[in-house]
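As a representative case, we now present a protein record of this kind.
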Amino acid sequence: MPRHEPRQYNKKFIKMVVFIVLLCVGLVSGYVYMNQEEDSINNYKLDNLTHEETKSKLEKEYTNTFSVSDYLFYGECLNLFQEAYQLDALDEIVGKSLILKDITSNKEYSFVLGTSVDTQIVLSSLHEGMYEVFIIEDLVEKRVVYTTSVQDEIKTVTNENGNCLVSLIADEAYFEDKKINVSENYMFLQVEETTLEAHEYDIILDPAGNDHDFNIWTVNEGNTGNGLTEYIESYTAAVLLKEALEDKGLKVLITREQDEVMNSYGDGGRLHQAYQASAKYYFKLGFSSSELNYSGLDISYSAHTSGRLATQVLYELEKNSNIKLCSVYSLNTDGLIAPIVIEGIDGKIVYDQNLIIRESGGKATGASKFSENADVGTGFFAKDNPYGMQTLSINLGYLTSDEDVTYWVNNKEEYMGVISDALYSYIGISND
């Protein structure tokens, strides 16, 4: 029998076969990918609409338009402005009516745009949908157009329906890859279901005391009286309030541990933590002291807001509890402290005197612009930040008042439970 030698293949031939196989795989993969991309483009649609119906509605053009050039968020409120936002100027958009029209359901929401940063578009009231934005000017309905391209988004606070992602879209290029031709930067608000990420929170609770805010050599433990110290009592209050709010489904972060020294300013400080947490509400909790016979709870709020959150909380407390409200610094409502504005380094008397209220509000309250110290302390994260937190400073009573201390010591859980209910009466309103 003759022996057969193993067949020897030319290396060039082998390389050519491998190349052809890889080329075929690449061509097939590319074809599949391109078809998937094309299907994705052709399948872009809103809710119960077809792609063609979606395209028809989004490509609608308007002859009557209204230009907007600035925006900001304060808490869960979206604010729009014709001109660049300024603390000391009243924008011409104020007083006008704004209408949101859902493309998919034809549902409409209307808002009267107020002077305060908490009185424009309340995002937590919106259902899911894609909304066109209109302004009524001189009795004429005008489509809102942004002067430049902008895309931004914010998540609403957790309520019984979960969270919503609200996307502000005013960018004709946004629709290009969807094969939809939008001729101008018409403004849309898209509302979708979402959840909070691990690092995101609804509410910040900031217990007063244990800081170097005003003296780098000495730890400020806060006010004292009747054997109690503010930094300990405010932390206890924060823990109890956190538990009560979390029982309602909210996600809450406390800025410090009981004995931890934590400054308001700086990298990793109280304010920096709050901004990083993407919180919508910030509540400073503390206790006062006085050589005079002062007693009772009071609440401070920003001069750039209507004070409706503080007023709502006080109303609920008066109606549903025996908590005493302080009348010392109040004007028309017991417990409601009228905000004080002071002059900044720019010479403008527009800045909230309360450090936390001012620096937590971002662009809405002029965070970081009051002083050089403020700029160093918060400028790198708060300056012109469009995401401001709606903030209250809540003084839970006077440690120098026997009446306040007795009530606090004997009713801590009940006290903070009532505070929780009062806050939730405003924050937890669902969009049903």
Remarks:
- The radius of gyration is 28 Å.
